[in-house]
Design a protein that fits this description.
3-stranded antiparallel β-sheet; two-stranded antiparallel ribbon; 65% helix; mainly alpha
């Protein structure tokens, strides 16, 4: 038996239906992780809220990520892709992928930076501002619905806690 096979044999059993199941000590570890993993809990909540906000924004043809990008550009004006990725806490490659449909639809433009030709700058267009303006009441309705069910003060505490996560010192996109 190889080391990999030994490890698998030591941690799995076959259930009556033939499916692999973890043995007791490993199963207990997995059960503890299920209720304790910060990443899993935040990802589940994020997917849940994203689906709700995406549904709310459907009438204007935006997804939550696209709405967030347009919002940040409307607030901050022209910026580099690197600076925008830092503002919205997204790696540059994923951001660049998310910019393509917005650029294709004329909601933003991406071009060489005025100050550094190696850097790419992005800015919202007039069409992007109009789309964002149409989206804000839909976002507000979703926001108000969440706060009315979750609680306004609880929602404010949640946002504060999530902002604090960004200050923990992790550097997930370090190169």
């Amino acid at each position: 038996m190889t080391d990999k096979t030994s490890a698998t044999a030591a941690t799995t059993v076959r259930a009556g239906d033939g499916q692999a199941r973890p043995k007791a000590p490993f199963a207990a570890t997995l059960a503890e992780m299920d209720g304790r993993c910060n990443c899993t809990a935040s990802r589940r909540a994020t997917r849940y809220l994203t689906a709700a906000y995406d549904k709310a924004l459907t009438p204007v043809g935006l997804r939550t990520t696209q709405f967030n990008i347009l919002h940040r550009l409307a607030l901050g004006g022209r910026t580099t892709i690197t600076a925008l990725s830092q503002r919205i806490a997204m790696d540059r490659t994923t951001l660049a992928t998310n910019l393509k449909p917005l650029e294709r639809d004329g909601l933003l433009v991406v071009r060489s930076s005025d100050t550094d030709r190696r850097a790419r700058a992005v800015e919202i267009t007039e069409a992007g501002l109009k789309r964002l303006e149409a989206a804000v009441p839909l976002w507000k309705a979703a926001q108000d619905q969440f706060e009315s069910t979750f609680g306004a003060s609880e929602a404010a505490e949640l946002r504060a806690a999530l902002r604090a996560v960004l200050e923990t010192g992790f550097d997930p996109w370090a190169e």
